[in-house]
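Question (not urgent): is this output format expected?
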Amino acid sequence: MCFQVQQYGVTFTLDRAYPCGQFANGDYWVTPVEGSLGKVKVLSITPAYEEGRNGLEVNPSRVDRHGFDAGADGFDETLVQTLPYSAEPNESLVKAVSIIGHDKTYLDTAVVLTVLAAAPPEGGRNVFRPPYFGQSKPLYSTNGMRLDLLPTLPALPDMPTLPELSERFARVQLDHQLWWSADQIHPVKNMPDYGAAIAMDNSVASLRLMVEGDPVERKQLAIHLVQYGIDLDAAMKGGLHFLADGGHRHGRKLVLALSALLLNDQAMAARVRDFQQGTFQEDGHLYVGAGSGIVLFGQLCTAADYWENQITGGNSRDCRDPYGYIDGGQEPGAYYQMCCTAKAFKATALALRLLPALRCIWTDDRILRYADRWVEHGAWTQPDPYQPGGNGALDNNPADGTGRWPGAHGAARDEGYYANAFADAMWAAYRSQASDTYSCSSRIEAPCNGVLIPTR
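Got this back:
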């Protein structure tokens, strides 16, 4: 029974004592009591909302607006829930704590308190928190996770520990806003602000799950990653996508695919498998070039946008080659290709190879082919029949090398910022052992396979 719920420096003060407990990921739930009219009355939350800071939303349902901090793009004060508030069952109270002085995000942390109609089984200790986004609040059992599908590879020296990775993902991953400005509500104590760092963290945690370790600690990390996937999946049903955009938006497809696999959730798997153009950055940034026949880097742009960037440095710095011969971007092997995507793409590709069942959900092999090429060769700029200059004319003067970037062919091989030593060590140890062939005979065939617990 709780008069107050306290977590990560946030205190929810209630009007009376209510039944309360914690989900498997550590977040709290409360339920009404006799005489409370079927609701839970929240008198106050500290730190309090004041002058556009420390906002509170109930069941966030917009992917383009939020009520957390007025400094962040997309702030809408009409979404901020005022107090006192009588919360009904199946409501998620998402409280943000603002930060001062950070150069990107406006949030320090965020906490979710979930109101249920009745206590979850076993007090919630083996139940995922329902998604904070949207009106639907399904309860998934952690006991149904298919951890038996994970490989148990021999340990490597200097690996990140399972508990430290669990701590990294223990707080809510507040990740339901569109575009690059979503960075501005990524709480610094919950997650990195920038997508490239998020993508690498997701890949490292996924790879670590595939290495032997204490079963209890391994399960706890899986719980935190799948909780992230449950939240992302709910937001995707509400319109969230991860359009290719520099280094901002990748890494989420792996979390979703892994969550769908471990939960044996067909609907979640379908939202990954049946993606449309623009749903995931990994798919939007990689394509088979019509001229080269290999997987190249670059997001879909017009030829005019591409050439504007090549000539002036303006416009998008990750446009694809309109002719399909060479890697895109302002300079092949540089900018967003090298700095902010290459290493996470490599780590993601390895996870897909080491757990082939993921490929039955991911379905596309472009990231696998691209990662191998980046590691073994680097940037791709040859052959290229076009001259620099922006007019699409053929290059008939081989004196300085034929093509737009002849000197960049093979540049930055296996390089990239946002690198991780463990991910690179995993590649060195296990890439050669991973087979290029796999079977989808064990593909998900039934929705949830009894994992879903009805909320009513």
